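Protein in question quoted in full.
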Amino acid sequence: MANAPSCGDSPAVPTTRAIVTRLTRLTDTSLIVHWFTQNHGLMKTVVKGARRPSSPFAGKLDLFFGGEISLLRARRGELHVLREVAIDEWREGLRQHYSSTLLAAYFGQLLELAVQPEHPEPDIYDLLRRALNHVTVSGASLRALRHFEAELARLLGVADHQRSGEACLTDALGLLPTSRLALQEQLSAGDSLNSPSA
């Protein structure tokens, strides 16, 4: 694993599988990395110097990358320190097509609305991992979007078989990410182009 400097006597969190869902620039050289982890749900880490070429994390932190991480818990707040990372799921296909990138980003945005930070959700982690791997191989589609929403509604306990996952999640969460409308239009246009002509 790539290693970061230790942070005093802050307690270390055991290694867990994790997926990068969002990156935020903190300074010219540092990042805040949002993860969906298998054992701890949504977590945020600060990675000082991550943007420097000499960083042990250089090339290892990008959207939708997955692997094993460990971190040091913050003494206060929810911004922890990334300690080690070993990426083994690069998902390069998600960055080769705009619609795939949009759909993968929507998955992450939806989960940030749907689950509490640092609350273990291993089944939802598995859903995200399978969904990203599917889109990496097969590309983005309305079917993949709707399947993810339906499965998330089921796992959250808000599914209604007579209604769509979108409707169930909207009722439960109050709103869905604003990117959904543009995403649906993008995917609808793609499906139309890929459909056999009459």
